[in-house]
Design brief:
This protein has 18 helices and twelve strands. The longest helix is centred in the first third of the chain and has 21 residues.
């Protein structure tokens, strides 16, 4: 075969390839955070349903463990290999917006689409007057308590204050055995948040006036309180070895009498520990009556470098219909973000969820500030040091606050 013939053959192949690709379906890649064993199957089913109605679009789902999601996205974005859509922690959004990584969605959002959402959950994704993400997961935090353990200890109601809580934990300790009053998280994601519950209850703030609140009296008092729980054997041993999931498992096993966490634990209990006799109550209040709860949203975003923005938006529109949102939130145990979805009896008549929704008016969200992940990590490192007895509360928190203030500048 001559060189000219080879060129003709390659040209013909290119034409065939171009012709096939011209008529091929566009592929939308979606990176999904794994919340539970049901996350992947839900999105695969949603993708198939969407493709059936939109045969010109193919949806490619990639499910990533939550704890490794941020690192994967950082690597993919740096290499220009990121998906078209991805779930992210809303607290990461400011950095993504400031770096021009995610695209605003306003040109796609019509009034009827925006009206689907409960404002509380859409607002955190609005920056500079533009919508940069849609709330794919929403929750607040409350205290779960084991009614049987409380009854054995002579406790008739969940603790209203942290002082009451410590008294209750002391009563539970007197029962003996390996059951502890307070399931305290000290490892991995949201270790800082578990500390904020007490700090907020004491009237503290994460950032106030542009400076860290970690060196405030409220924060120092909280650190001393939590450390007293640890030192007096009122928490599970080895607190810094327990992630959120680990502490939830202790609760499901009846090894801790309380745990502070999200609505999805209710669904896990029904499936994994159906005989567990539990209740849900607000997080205990501080001396001034303040109650600390954490409002959380994760967002799904459209990357600016996506070559399939229109098709990607069509998929977003689909998964944020009432039917799809209801399926997803029932599977994962999240609070509804869709106003019509919230009217479903599953949510409207659910006693556990009513406790969480009642706390939303006073919920705090992670502050939308640059460098938030560094700030959260600094806080987690400081409280772990205190829990381990490697630093005094006041000195350790003041050192951490100074580091955070440098980040804030």
């Amino acid at each position: 075969m001559t060189f000219k013939q080879k060129l003709c053959l390659l040209a013909g192949a290119s034409i065939v390839a171009f012709s096939s690709s011209a008529f091929a379906a566009s592929t939308v890649r979606v990176t999904i955070a794994e919340y539970s064993k049901g996350t992947g199957p839900y999105f695969q089913e949603a993708a198939k349903a969407f493709e059936a109605a939109n045969p010109d679009v193919k949806i490619q789902i990639e499910v990533v463990p939550w704890d490794s999601l941020q690192q994967k996205l950082t690597t993919d974005i740096s290499a220009g290999a990121n998906a078209d859509l991805s779930i992210i922690g809303t607290r990461w959004l400011l950095d993504y917006v400031s770096e021009g990584i995610v695209a605003p969605l306003d040109e796609h959002i019509k009034p009827d689409f925006k009206a689907r959402f409960i404002d509380t959950f859409l607002t955190p994704s609005v920056m500079n007057g533009k919508v940069y993400g849609l709330p794919v997961a929403a929750s607040a935090r409350a205290m779960y308590y084991n009614k049987d353990i409380f009854a054995k200890a002579g406790i008739s109601a969940p603790p209203a204050t942290w002082a009451d809580f410590k008294t209750d934990a002391e009563k539970i300790k007197k029962l003996g055995g390996e059951t502890y009053g307070f399931g305290l998280q000290g490892k991995e994601s949201e270790t800082d948040v578990y500390f904020y519950y007490g700090m907020w209850s004491n009237g503290g703030e994460i950032v106030k006036g542009g400076k860290s609140g970690l060196d405030s009296k409220a924060a120092i008092d909280t650190a001393k309180l939590y450390k007293s729980f640890i030192d007096e054997g009122l928490t599970q041993p080895g607190v810094t070895s327990y992630s959120r999931e680990d502490v939830q498992n202790l609760f499901k096993q009846g090894k801790v009498a309380t745990v502070i966490t999200a609505p999805f634990l209710s669904g896990q209990i029904k499936t994994e520990a159906p005989k567990l006799n539990y209740g849900v109550a607000p997080i205990p209040a501080g001396p001034g009556g303040d109650k600390g709860t954490y409002g959380v949203t994760d967002s799904i975003v459209l990357f600016e470098n996506s070559k399939n923005k229109e098709a990607a938006w069509k998929f977003l529109d689909f998964i944020f219909t009432k039917e799809q949102r209801t399926k997803f939130d029932k599977i994962e145990g999240f609070l509804p973000v869709n106003a019509e979805e919230a009217k479903d009896p599953y949510f409207a008549d659910n006693a556990d969820l009513k406790v969480f929704t009642s706390l939303l008016p006073n919920a705090r969200f992670a502050p939308v500030i640059p460098g938030w992940e560094d700030i959260a990590k600094t806080t987690s490192n400081a409280v772990q040091k205190i829990y381990l007895g490697q630093g005094e509360a006041e000195a350790t928190l003041k050192e951490a606050a100074a580091k955070i203030n440098a980040t804030l500048k």
